[in-house]
Automatic annotation (TrEMBL):
<feature type="signal peptide">
    <location>
        <begin position="1"/>
        <end position="26"/>
    </location>
</feature>
<dbReference type="GO" id="GO:0008237">
    <property type="term" value="F:metallopeptidase activity"/>
</dbReference>
<dbReference type="InterPro" id="IPR032534">
    <property type="entry name" value="EcxA_zinc-bd"/>
</dbReference>
<feature type="domain" description="DUF5117">
    <location>
        <begin position="118"/>
        <end position="305"/>
    </location>
</feature>
<keyword id="KW-0732">Signal</keyword>
<dbReference type="Pfam" id="PF17148">
    <property type="entry name" value="DUF5117"/>
</dbReference>
<feature type="compositionally biased region" description="Basic and acidic residues">
    <location>
        <begin position="34"/>
        <end position="52"/>
    </location>
</feature>
<dbReference type="InterPro" id="IPR034032">
    <property type="entry name" value="Zn_MMP-like_bac"/>
</dbReference>
<feature type="region of interest" description="Disordered">
    <location>
        <begin position="29"/>
        <end position="52"/>
    </location>
</feature>
<dbReference type="InterPro" id="IPR024079">
    <property type="entry name" value="MetalloPept_cat_dom_sf"/>
</dbReference>
<feature type="domain" description="EcxA zinc-binding">
    <location>
        <begin position="473"/>
        <end position="789"/>
    </location>
</feature>
<protein>
    <submittedName>
        <fullName>Uncharacterized protein DUF5117</fullName>
    </submittedName>
</protein>
<dbReference type="InterPro" id="IPR033413">
    <property type="entry name" value="DUF5117"/>
</dbReference>
<dbReference type="Pfam" id="PF16313">
    <property type="entry name" value="DUF4953"/>
</dbReference>
Length: 868
């Protein structure tokens, strides 16, 4: 009998069972697969969804027709833009401006962001917005024009997927949110600059979720969209001023405008360096000339109704609207300021070229609408300007398409922005700041400080008039003169004119003190200057304070820009007049407002008369006279001393500006931009005469560096008190920093006359006529700062000055910037330091003086040990 082991039997059984189960499962899978396959074969095919049409995608949207049809979703507010086939490959103009913002972000109401040409391309299933590079010109008749696109870059601004199209109508629909709810079209957030303070205000990250479109207005010739950009910055150090509710969340409102390119028929006018218009710079890449500039003058399209008439009304005048927010008491003065330019246009052949209207209180259009040129008013917490007159143009032609003028109410009140005045008179921007401002204001027609300077001038005028017992009527008359002058200045910008900082040379000081001679005239060659206020030292000879008409240069410039010349000979004959004294010109690039900048002392801000040194000396004397009367004239029972404090700063500010003006004559070189062979032309560079440089040095010695410079009555300082407001003094003492203030005024002069550019120019200009040698200048400067009190006691103001000056000399021979100075400059600095070391070694004077001299000697000795 056979016996089986139970374990073997069980194992065999399990193996057979598993094979059987596996086989069964395989058969089941096969049957299921066959069944699924059969079912799949028998299942009807799903119908493909039809592509959505434009109508489908916009059925819940409001249709806003115009140049570009806009659809805005009635629920989400999202926008879509309709592009028509006939709009492809066609030029349009994009323009933007700030509707509302904050000055800390350099984005404030009315500020223009520039204009650019763009066209729209269709690339497969996308719509592209492209801004072509318009900086170069190629003559189509020149074979080299075939390489016009070589090594230049256009800007592909946006590429949007086509959401739907209508081939029959030739229409394409795209999502426009990315176009308008981003910084794609215009940059609002400024770049961060190296070395910036971590406490400086900065916009945060753009928040697309919070940003929105506030308003859409559409017209046949332009599409206008108002957006609100929101920037989030959860970790801020500098939250800005009280104008900003919460620095973490800042809103900037922006107007975007798409416009049709204007019709043909506009005649371009090319720039000439002898006259100052804003331009669009273009290089002629097919020219063989040494200079290939083809710069386009910015000007309005003016066409005579009667081309045969010497003077005719234009077909379309330049029309200005006074915004309905304008104070009623200023409207007549503003109108006069605008219409004053008609005198210039009549000389160019146009009658009533300028027209002024008032915006009705019930107007249905916004002042930001580009179809209107508007004189607008704001009353900002932190005014960025007093007046501001930007325009925008067709970049292909230079034709001005629109303009506005912004006016700040605070600049026509008695309020003084002390921090602005103190900073403007106590120091200059350094070179890094200058470069920053140059970067941010590359389009200089978008930047103007005339209103700031005029406000300081007017506050000075009010102080003088108050100190001399002037009537309210006289005060009001001066304010109206200031307003009219500012309006003429800003309107000039909107006509295409840039600044003329050289124009203040028109009258002599004696003529400016002749009320009958100057009545109703422009006190300078041009209202486009930043001139000082005309306040006479002899108060019995006071005439008008500001320009009351456009100047001879203004008339001549408008003739150049707007006269419909019949031939080039006529234009050349007009330009040949540039050598006349009343027509001299120098713009912001030529002015000497910052240390070491430019070379011609006639191109300066805050000056007046053809004897700037003499007029500035009179300004010092006038300030000193008024300082003695200040306390009594500003005494008002029941009021705080805030106005007295303000007046003190205003007076000292005028002295500081006078010092600036005088200092520019040292090492100065007069520039003549006349063409070769032009009648009345001189050599291009002529150094300032020896006599005038010596005169300037003596004036600085007396009014800037002398022991009694900037001296005020001793009983005044204790009353320079601010009015308390809450806890605003928290963290810092409120007392006036008199020593620091005076040293600031003196340092700003030293910053220029000891600037490496100035010192180098003194040496270089000896080669073409300068007689005031570097050795003589630096010896006289050394003497001016030390000799008057070297053997006696040195007062605290002079101690500060001597220490500052000595440190500047030491930095020339052993500082970080020593390599910027010429060998001759460093040699004279070393020579003067050794002289000072000898002088201060005499040990004379009171205890504080002895300590001061010992400190100077130690400082010089230790530093010179390191000089190699």
């Amino acid at each position: 009998m056979l016996t089986y082991k139970p374990r073997v039997v069980l194992t065999t059984f399990l193996a057979l069972f598993m094979l059987s189960v596996s086989d069964i499962n395989a058969q089941r899978r096969k049957k299921k697969k066959e069944k699924d396959s059969k079912a799949k074969t028998e299942m009807p095919k799903k119908k493909e969804k039809p592509e959505k049409t434009i109508a489908d995608l916009t059925k819940k949207s409001a249709k806003i027709e115009g140049l570009f049809t806009i659809y805005q979703d009635s629920v989400s507010g999202d926008v879509k833009l309709l592009v028509k086939k006939d709009q492809l490959n066609k030029d349009f103009i994009y323009f933007s401006q700030i509707a509302d913002g904050v000055t800390e972000a350099n984005a404030f109401r009315g500020s223009y962001r520039g204009s650019t040409v763009f066209h729209i391309n269709k690339h497969f299933n996308k719509i592209e917005f492209v801004a072509p590079n318009t900086s170069f010109y190629f003559d189509e008749n020149n074979a080299i024009s075939r390489s016009a696109e070589a090594n230049t870059s256009d800007a592909l601004i946006e590429s949007s997927k086509i959401l739907a199209s209508d081939d029959e109508k030739g229409e394409y629909l795209i999502d426009a949110n990315d176009l308008f709810l981003s910084e794609t079209l215009t940059r609002v957030k400024q770049p961060s600059f190296p070395g910036g303070s971590p406490f400086a205000f900065k916009l945060g990250r753009f928040d697309k979720k919070k940003s929105k479109i506030n308003n859409i207005k559409n017209y046949p010739e332009n599409t206008n969209i108002k957006t609100e950009y929101v920037f989030n910055n959860p970790t801020i150090l500098g939250g800005g001023s009280r104008a900003i509710k919460d620095g973490r969340y800042v809103s900037i409102k922006v107007f975007h405008t798409f416009m049709n390119i204007p019709e043909d028929g506009y005649e371009v006018r090319f720039d000439d360096p002898r006259v100052g218009f804003f331009t669009t710079q273009v290089n002629d890449m097919t020219s063989t000339e040494t200079i290939n500039y083809r710069d386009l003058v910015h000007r309005w399209r003016l066409v005579k109704k009667d081309p045969t008439a010497a003077v005719s009304e234009p077909v379309t005048p330049i029309t200005w609207w006074i915004e309905n927010s304008t104070p009623l008491e200023w409207r007549q003065t503003i109108t006069e300021g605008v219409l004053a330019w008609n005198e210039a246009f009549e000389k160019a052949g146009f009658k009533n070229a300028m027209v002024v209207k008032v915006q009705p209180d019930d107007a249905d259009w916004d002042a930001g609408d580009v179809r209107y040129n508007v004189l607008r008013w704001t009353s900002s917490p932190n005014p960025p300007f007093g007046g501001y007159g930007p325009s925008f143009v067709n970049p292909r032609t230079g034709e001005i398409l629109g303009a506005d003028i912004m006016l700040e109410y605070v600049h026509f009140t008695n309020r003084v922005k002390l921090d602005r005045i103190i900073s403007s008179v106590s120091s200059f921007e350094n070179e890094e700041e200058t470069m920053k401002h140059a970067f941010l204001n590359q389009d200089n027609h978008l930047f103007c400080s005339a209103g700031h300077l005029m406000h300081e001038n007017t506050m000075f005028g009010k102080t003088v008039l108050a100190a001399t017992g002037a009537s309210d009527m006289e005060m009001e008359g001066m304010k109206k003169e200031a307003m009219k002058s500012l309006i003429m200045h800003e309107v000039g910008h909107t006509l295409g004119l840039n600044h003329n900082m050289k124009a203040s040379q028109l009258f002599s000081p004696e003529e400016l003190a002749n009320p009958e001679l100057i009545r109703g005239k422009c006190l300078t060659g041009s209202v486009m200057d930043y001139a000082g206020i005309n306040l006479t030292l002899d108060r019995t000879k006071q005439g008008q304070y500001y320009d009351m008409a456009v100047g001879p240069y203004d008339i001549w410039a408008i003739q150049f820009g707007y006269t419909p010349f019949t031939n080039k000979t006529e234009m050349d004959a007009l330009l040949a007049q540039s050598t006349k004294p009343e027509l001299i010109f120098g713009n912001d690039a030529d002015d000497m407002r910052s240390p070491g900048k430019a070379i011609d002392p006639r191109v300066m801000t805050g000056d007046l008369s053809n004897d700037q040194i003499g007029y500035s000396i009179d300004r010092f004397k006038l300030v000193n006279n008024m300082m003695r009367k200040l306390k009594s004239s500003m005494a008002k029972t029941g009021e705080s001393y805030e106005e007295l404090r303000n007046a003190y700063y205003v007076l000292n500010g005028q002295s500081a500006r006078a010092g600036d003006v005088i200092s520019r004559f040292i090492g100065g070189v007069y520039v003549d931009r006349a063409m070769q062979g032009q009648e009345g032309a001189t050599q291009p560079y002529t150094p300032v005469s020896y006599a005038d440089q010596k005169r300037a040095m003596n004036a600085l010695k007396t009014y800037i560096f002398a022991p009694n410079a900037f001296k005020a009555p001793s009983d005044l300082y204790a009353y320079l008190a601010r009015q308390r407001r809450g806890y605003n003094f928290f963290g810092g003492p409120e007392d006036p920093k008199i020593h620091a203030q005076v040293l600031g005024y003196q340092t700003r002069v030293l910053n220029h006359i000891l600037h490496p550019n100035t010192l180098q120019r003194i040496s270089d200009s000896e080669l073409y006529g300068n007689k005031y040698k570097l050795s003589e200048f630096m010896t006289e400067l050394n003497d001016a700062i030390f000799k008057a009190d070297i053997y006696g006691s040195v007062n605290s103001f002079r101690q500060n000055l001597q220490m500052q000056y000595t440190k500047m000399l030491l930095s020339m021979v052993d500082g970080k910037s020593k390599n910027r100075f010429t060998n001759a400059s460093k040699a004279m600095a070393l020579y003067n330091l050794n002289k000072i070391k000898t002088w201060v070694g005499n040990g004379t004077g009171d205890v504080m003086t002895k300590a001061h001299k010992a400190q100077l000697k130690t400082l010089i000795t230790n530093t010179l040990k390191e000089v190699k």
